Amino acid sequence: MSEPSVFQKTLHGLRYAATQLIDDLKIWLFIGLLFATIVKTFIPETFLLQYGSGVTTMLLMVAISIPMYICATASTPVAAGFIMAGISPGTALVFMMAGPATNISTLGVIRNEMGNAVLIRYLLGISLCALGFGLFFDWLLQFFHININEQMSHNHELLPYWIGIFCSILFVLLSIKPLRKLIIKT
């Protein structure tokens, strides 16, 4: 039996990504997006600011960001907004580390594939690292007298809006099995 070509391997990987991977993630992605919508709708933007900065706010940030479905690209402007609103850069770093590293879909897959013990260790590792680096970052900024607000002047979108719309439509079409069968021969 001959070794499959690079093209055949690529097609196999794309078929897997467009079928099995989407089937494994779609329900957890929906739950994560629903949770993010609930948080965004019912928790006021100034909610975190009333706690100031420090370990308490960082722990609260971990609790909010772990189940939220947010990628590294999306977390950056959110964290910048938090900093501009008045929370410490270390607390924003906790959000930027814990949010993209975890979400409801990732947690569901880890629990299903590896069990609860691994899930707990994973969450503890992410949480402790995020808290440690957040506290260290705040300490460094104070030690070197750096004001992050002065450094933040503007930001730009990474991808054009139409790419996000196209990818969203493609994901929805591939998530619905009868429509997927029209697109991909499985």
TrEMBL record:
It is found in: Cell membrane. It comes from the Bacteria. It is a multi-pass membrane protein. Signal peptide: none annotated. Keywords: Cell membrane, Membrane, Transmembrane, Transmembrane helix. The chain crosses the membrane at residues 25-43, 119-139, 159-176. InterPro entries: DUF318 (IPR005524), UPF0718 (IPR052923). Belongs to the UPF0718 family. This is Permease. It comes from Thalassotalea profundi.
